[in-house]
Amino acid sequence: MVGPEIVVSTQSLPSLWRDGDFLRYWGSRAVTMIGSSVTAVALPVLIYHLTGSPALTSGLRATSTLSMAAFGLVGGVLGDRFDRRRIMITADLVSALAIASLVAAHLAGVLTVPHVYAADFASASAAVLFDGSSAGALPTLVGRPRLPEANARIWGTQGVLDVVMPALAGLALAIWSPASLLVIDVLSFVGSALLVRAIRGALNERRARTVRTTARDLWADLVEGVTFLRRHPTLWPLAMVAVFGAGSAAALLGLIVPWADRVLGVGTSGWRFGMLFGSWAAGAFFASFLMPRLSRRYGAIRLAQCLFPAMTVLLLVLSRLDRYGGALAVYLAHATLHVLVISATVTYRMQIVPERLLSRVSTASRTLSWGGGATIGVLVSGQLASHFGVRAALLAVAVANGCAALLAWVPALRRAAPTARYAETA
User: Fold this and answer.
1) Less packed terminus of the chain by CB within 10 Å, N or C?
2) Backbone CA torsion sign across 295, 297, 299, 305
3) What is the 3-state secondary structure (H, E, C) of 192-239?
4) pTM above 0.90?
5) Which InterPro entries does the record match to this protein (predicted)?
6) Of 244, 225, 227, 237, nearest to 348 (Cα)?
7) Which residues, other chains included, contact 274 with Cβ-Cβ below 8 Å and sequence gap of 6+?
């Protein structure tokens, strides 16, 4: 549990845009977002062109969710135990090498579907380790009182880039091959590593050094983080909500390419295809402006209880639409509400978990939601789309989101305080 509430006025703190270390951290995230936005469009199209299979196209997203299942808890333990800066730099370089191998194979004319899956899994696994350290680094870097502002600015930047870049990628796909566009992602990972290296401030709190870290120490760290999450009166039920919420969101994102091609009739390139990919990010951009104010006024838990039912209705409507304009508008509205809830609950978790446990608890929660729920979501939806059609798969996405809506009203969350209570650690 946390200590007594400490109220700190953010008005007395310097602007984050004048904080050099935050700008470097923000810059590392921004350049990675540019590359990842392009790859998020290029890789599914590449698989779809190679196979024509909705199941294999949707299944590509499972590489990232499985990587979370495999390395999520490990990433949290490493981030809390070792130098977060070194872990983040190493992870960026591994991701760069993995994606670069696809470019090289394409140029040599030997690119295969297993290679795409393997490289994507390697890059996603490195990203999981990066995130395990990043989750603890940001609160240490900016302080807990400025977390809502810092997260809003990072997610706002992601929203802008993820709107612009997929649209540009969609246009570029009409000229260049999907594999050629991956060069952008390679350069972005290298740029991120250089910016993280340039951060001057500490990304870990000062702690007493131990002589040696054993496997037993690492296992004890892992158990401590999972136990904290499991026993917390609000974080654990929120994690269960996130399992179904992440499963629904990942399944929807995995269906975009066959949905665009087979239901909406916009193909797999061009500005309309790019806008469809970018509309999820546009929702994230809108949510970044709404989240700090709504989170302070209503709290993350209340937002989840109100917005998950609304998202379920939107998904049911989406499963019946076949016109591009209406589908784009509903998809954008759903994305805005989903990212709003997720960003509010992530910030809530960051504010109430002790710093020494931040990486472990954050990655334990993401392992459950993205490693478990999202993996099941993309695999099931892909099979449904292949055997019963994309519309049936979208209906299943709505059902999964409805389960999250019901779980948001369990007694523990109904009784929970509306906003997070947090204390700065010494």
Assistant:
1) C
2) negative
3) HHHHHHHCCCCCCCCCCCCCCCCHHHHHHHHHHHHHHHHHCCCHHHHH
4) no
5) MFS_trans_sf (IPR036259), TM_effector (IPR010290)
6) 237
7) 41, 166, 167, 168, 169, 170, 171
Answer left, alpha or beta for residue 349, where phi above 0 means left and psi between -120 and 50 means alpha: alpha
What is the C-alpha to C-alpha distance for residues 212 and 315, in angstroms, rounded to an integer? 51
How far is residue 267's CA from residue 174's CA, in Å, rounded to a whole number?
A: 11
Type of residue numbered 211: V
Please report the DSSP string for 157-174 in residue order: HHHHHHHHHHHHHHHHTT
In sequence order, what DSSP letters do the residues of 108-140 get, joined into one string? Answer: HT---HHHHHHHHHHHHHHHHHHHHHHHHHHHH
The reply to whether 82 falls in a domain is yes
- Is residue 406, in this structure, part of any structural domain at all? yes
Which burial class, exposed, middle or buried, applies to 345 when counting CB atoms under 10 A from its CB (0-12, 13-18, 19+)? buried
Per-residue DSSP letter, 409: T
Report in angstroms the alpha-carbon separations of 259 from 28, 117, 294, 389, 401.
32, 21, 32, 9, 19
pLDDT confidence of residue 13: 56
Whether 286 is covered by a domain: the verdict is yes
Q: Which domain holds residue 63?
A: 16-203+214-414
Q: Name the token pair of 126.
A: 């490195």
| Number of folded domains that form the chain | 1
For residue 137, give the nearest of 32, 211, 29, 64 by alpha carbon: 29
Mean pLDDT, the chain cut into blocks of 10 residues (426 residues total): 41 66 84 82 84 80 75 75 86 92 89 90 87 76 71 71 71 78 88 88 63 71 86 92 92 88 83 79 79 83 94 95 92 93 85 79 81 84 89 95 95 79 39
pLDDT at 62: 76
